Amino acid sequence: MVKLSVIIACFNEEATLADLLESLASQEWSKPWEIVFVDNRSTDNSLAIAKEYRKRLPNLKIVDASGKQGKPFALNKGITVSEGALIAFLDADDLVAPGWLPVVGKALEEHELIATRTDVETLNDENNRRYRGNVQAEGVLQIHYPPYLPHASGGTIGITRALNDKIGGFDESLRCLEDTDYLWKAQLAGATLHYVPEAVVQVRFRDDLRGIYRQRRAYAEYNVFLSRRYRSYGDPMPHPWHSYFNGWKRLLLSLKKLRRAPSRADWVGKLGWMVGRTRGIVKYRVPPV
User: Fold this and answer.
1) What phi and psi values does residue 152 have, to the nearest 5 degrees?
2) pTM of the full structure
3) Residue 252 burial by Cβ neighbours in a 10 Å radius (0-12, 13-18, 19+)
4) Nearest partner of 79 among 150, 201, 172, judged by Cα
């Protein structure tokens, strides 16, 4: 019987998928485990690459999730098809460091909800690291608005099947931050998010300015949405408008960063964040976060 299922939702990741599968091929654990690759309407060679690894990874299961576009749908599909009592999620553009598998498996045997450490040095140059930083180098990320609960990157988390079933899986209506919502539901159901620094996921950041801008804009907009969804779980964030207008002020005062190539990704990311906050305020009619 499979003990642990590693679920990978994929949409057009041909450039990085082989690296991830290669890093999983070198993992060893004394207990049975499987990899569940979920193809979510990829139009590139992602599916073909996954099929090529069947010989290297006999525990690889390939799942079609073309019924609906969206990562939450693909993840739920993978969970449904998977067999393990323990579940770990990985993003198709990341890698796992040596020893990741047994540490994650042991941690999930002891805790119902976990997040691993991230390494942003291996796959990203200095410019890309500057605009994101390494928020899971020493722990999980704390949120400054209700429900004031920690969260972690979706490609670093693990959960027991029992807890996933209890909270109903991922919210398929969300286009972004489905991982944050998932972790908060689990914690509000009584779980504690346990940090596992011994297991490391090597995270890959976006490296094109348009991609950076769009990702940060979406993150910011959906942070505002989640603040509305969970506003009954704590006191409002203090001085939200002061923080919002200061954000725009700092951004405009730093326009000179656009002159220097190493600083552009940082500035564009911050622009995306502020535009996303503004979109969220207008769309969801709540104060900024």
Assistant:
1) -150, 165
2) 0.96
3) exposed
4) 172
Give the β-pairing of 95-96 and 194-202. antiparallel
Helices (H), the chain: 17-25, 46-52, 71-81, 100-110, 126-132, 161-167, 178-188, 209-229, 240-253, 261-284
3-class state of residue 60 by DSSP: strand
Residue that is written with structure tokens 């006999």 in the block: 58
3-state SS record for 69-124: CCHHHHHHHHHHHCCCCEEEEEECCCEECCCHHHHHHHHHHHCCEEEEEEECCCCC
* pLDDT at residue 94 in the model: 98
d(CA 153, CA 117) in angstroms, rounded, equals 10
Tell me which amino acid residue 265 is. Answer: A
CB 195 within 8 A of CB 251: no
Q: How far apart are CA 89 and CA 18, in angstroms?
A: 17
244 vs 237: CA distance, rounded Å: 12
Query: What is the predicted pLDDT for the residue at 105?
Result: 98
3-class secondary structure, 287: coil
- Reported as a single tens digit per residue, the pLDDT across 19-63 is 999 999 999 999 999 999 999 999 999 999 999 999 999 999 999
